[in-house]
Amino acid sequence: MTEIELIKEYNKICDKHRGKSLLKDLTNNELFIWIAAKTYDFGRSINESLENAKSHMENRKNAEKSFGHKDVNEIIGHF
């Protein structure tokens, strides 16, 4: 996945879920993209972000807890 593809997919997820969904409501693929995009936005490379998301998705419940802080639990924002 390229940076542009990640950003486009992330923005689609935000548009679909904004204001009405939490991380637990996302599909596995949507949560994977969401985690990768948040990691990428934090400053990691695209490859590191995708690997990080893959690692987190090995245990979805823990991924939701790790990324489910009150300020990020709502699906918000665009790149």
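Above is the first protein from milestone M3; the second protein from the same milestone is given next.
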Amino acid sequence: MTTIGIICEGGPCGEDEQVLRHLVGRILPGVAVKILTQGRKPDLIAQCGQVAQALFDSGCDRVLIVWDVFPRWGRPDGEQQDIADIQAVLAQSGIAHPCLYLVPIKAELEAWLLADGSALSAVLSRPAHKVKIGDTKNVEDNDNPKNRLEAVFKRYGRAYTPKSDAIKIVKKLPDKFGVLGKLSTFRKFGWSLTQPC
């Protein structure tokens, strides 16, 4: 059986792990998934070499490092800086594996959750009160999608609870992932899971 390893932010069983595990299962049904969460992005960058090696040593066929470009945690701006820093740590750790992929999410994971209005509508609707939310345009250009997602939930009388609501949203995504399937970073995630290596 193919085993996918993922290194991501957040804590064990948190929204990042739940969302990524579900999405992998939809893209590659039947694969095994090992996810090692690393807390904040600075910790993910610092630990990515040894964690990637541990995942490969444990039998993973490929490993993805998935992180949010924002917040910057006081670092110089940009995705390219994050990639350079991660590559430096991997090189220092002696990791040069053809099946290791870097997947930066523009802004934050919440951009993926905001993209498809039909999924948000399904989560926020109640039997007596149907909700119709439009797709979020240019969602990857939003520098604080988490705040925007919280505002959408608040508008419909609910507080956004990441640990329970994030997975509900991705479970309601239509076939082919709706609008999420068109986002460049999500396409990179799918490519990283399926590209021969």
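Note on the second protein: The CA atoms of residues 22 and 171 lie 8 Å apart.
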